[in-house]
Amino acid sequence: MFKVLVVEDESLVRRALVSLTPWQDLGFEFCAEAENGSAALSLFIQHQPQVIITDIRMPVMDGLDFIQKVFDYVQKEACSKPEVIILTGYSEFEYARKALMLGVHEYVLKPVEEEILYNSLERAKQRLLDRQKEKERVQISLFEKIQSADNDNTGIAFNYVKESIALIENQYVLGITIEEAAQKLGISSGHLSRLFKQSTKLTFNEYVRNVRIEKAIALLKDQSIKIYEIADLVGYLDVKYFTQTFKKITGLTPSEYRYRFFQANQAIDTE
């Protein structure tokens, strides 16, 4: 089960979320609660939850600062990035927009309706499961490539490249260079570059780019997310550059890809 941390300054709202949500039935394990972002940050580091449900406007440290510090921490420590569900009021939509730009996929309006919260949790769980499957797929594919290579240090190479891929998966939004990855692994960037290219047939930067585009393709299947928001969510600050890169890899612009995807689905539905 995936662990959940609840952060809410209103004690009644927090207790209702904690005590009335059927965590286990939904496939989760409640692990901790906090009344502000500062206290929650310590609990996040201690428990390493996969899901965070947090209010935005709180004393001491608000939800946006808390989310940013969590994402900074997972980037620095190469931990798995948690799924975040933010709680917000109608008058706080600008905060919700900023959270989406940070890489948050879900927000729930207050007062919280059970069905909407449960649906958000289900989507968060599915993204976590998809992420696990993708990591397993990449590792199996990578292992097969390395096993077929004529290299006396295959086992060592596999570990370095596997750890590099894990770093990319956790940090592709904020960005990571081969120098930063090599420093974390304790080897030279030149050595890592050779191992990575030999094992994956791609350079480190090409792999980062491909991960971002794969994530963008998945997000394009949700029509509620704007193209410029998707660019932000996968690590591109410049929408024009994102569009150029996307077209270079797929042969289509993001808008064209989305249009063709939904046209194809409609055709299937009418058959």
Question: How would you describe what is shown here?
Answer:
The protein is α/β, with parallel strands linked by helices and 271 residues long. 65% of the residues lie in helices and 10% in strands. The protein contains 13 helices and five strands. The chain has helices at residues 11-20, 23-26, 37-47, 63-77, 93-102, 114-148, 154-171, 178-185, 189-200, 204-220, 227-233, 239-250, 254-270, and strands at 2-7, 28-34, 51-55, 83-88, 106-109. A five-stranded parallel β-sheet has the order 2-1-3-4-5, with helices on both faces. α5 (93-102) links the parallel β4 and β5 (106-109). α3 (37-47) packs parallel to α4 (63-77), α6 (114-148) runs antiparallel to α7 and α8 (178-185) crosses α9 (189-200). The model is unreliable at 149-153 and 267-271 (pLDDT under 50).
Give descriptors for this structure:
271 residues, alpha/beta, five-stranded parallel sheet, 5 strands, globular
